Amino acid sequence: MGDILILGIESSCDETAAAVVKNGREVLSNVINTQIELHKKFGGVVPEVASRQHIRTIDGVIDKALSDAGVDFEDITAIAVTYGPGLVGALLVGVSSAKALAYALKKPLVPVHHIKGHIMANFVEHKELEPPFVCLVASGGHSHIVEVKDYTDIEILARTRDDAAGEAFDKIARVLGLGYPGGPLIDKLAKEGDKNAVHFPRVRMDGDSLDFSFSGVKTAVINYLHKLDQNGESYNKADIAASFQEAVVDALCTHTIEAARRTGNKTITLAGGVASNSALREKMTEEAAKEGMRVLYPSPVLCTDNAVMIACAGYYGYLNNEFADMTLNASASVRL
Ligand code: KG4
Ligand code: ZN
């Protein structure tokens, strides 16, 4: 079998991205056009603004992915695209482009679930990584613990009952007046603070569920600040950021390591935007080592939204004959 080149396309939120990946793990190009500056003044992603910007940039982003890779459309084996979950208008731009290309070029079309893409980023970063392993996927929209049993067989072990971890970071950053997106800003500020300054709650579900809940810690921080404000007391933002981050990171680590223990896995991987959090990487590595487990994570550019991860997932989908036809539609909420 000759080389398999997958063109990956991603447009589920505020990044327009395209990439060419060879044989699943070799990155030939990775183009990301981020809209962060555009949404900053609104304090978050505005769906309609995102859709319009995707339309403006997607053709150029795809062209650049091909030219950076030094290949032509004819060289591409198949086209992989994120079809959900995400903002439906944003997703539609990528899905329509991918369908048009697949139709015009007579190439197979591989639909990719966005969360699966995040998980697969680990295969690109760590060439020797093979299933099975446990993965914590934490982003702005999702927080799951999954077991990757095989390249196309993923079982969900736990999920969040309310807010996603990244969503909580973004909200607390806004409350602290730090800006958007909040995760990296809290991460940075927390380095100057004391993580033990305030003990915010960690929620554990009844029974043996490893599900997360982050709305409680979010409310606890907001109430805490509100009380201080009412009493006219000042506070150290860095201490609050560090203490909040510690509460979230603690829950993420405890539940994930417990999931690995229960399933008998010795490898834990991290994925999604929150996987670039330095405190999470550090604590997970430390705590897992005590259990004889290793922790792997992608470099930051492969943690946040990108198309390399979509092309990688598309490669394994291609090998597994997971093809879509021209009826493929964007889907705002679709289960893993
Ligand atoms: O995976 P991603 O780029 O988009 C989604 O699929 O949601 O994740 C974005 C999320 C945002 O909530 C952002 O605040 C968070 O990831 N994030 C972080 C860090 N970098 C990004 N959260 C905590 N620490 C970070 N360093
Ligand atoms: Zn994402």
Characteristics:
binds 5'-O-[(R)-(carboxyoxy)(hydroxy)phosphoryl]adenosine, 11 helices, alpha/beta, 45% helix, Nucleotidyltransferase, domain 5, five-stranded mixed sheet, 10 strands, globular, binds zinc ion, 2 domains, 336 residues
Describe this structure in words.
This protein is of the alpha/beta class. The protein folds into two domains: 5-120 and 303-319, Nucleotidyltransferase, domain 5 (2-Layer Sandwich), CATH 3.30.420; 131-298, Nucleotidyltransferase, domain 5 (2-Layer Sandwich). It is 45% helix and 19% strand. The chain has helices at 36-40, 47-69, 88-105, 114-125, 165-175, 182-190, 215-230, 237-263, 278-290, 300-303, 308-319, and strands at 5-10, 15-22, 26-34, 78-84, 109-113, 133-138, 143-150, 153-159, 267-271, 294-296. The chain has a five-stranded mixed β-sheet with strand order 3-2-1-4-5, with helices on both faces. A five-stranded mixed β-sheet has the order 8-7-6-9-10, sandwiched between helices. β6 and β7 form a beta hairpin. α2 (47-69) runs parallel beside α3 (88-105), α5 packs parallel to α7 and α8 (237-263) runs parallel beside α9 (278-290). The longest helix has 27 residues, at 237-263. It is globular, with a radius of gyration of 20 Å. The chain binds 5'-O-[(R)-(carboxyoxy)(hydroxy)phosphoryl]adenosine (KG4) and zinc ion.
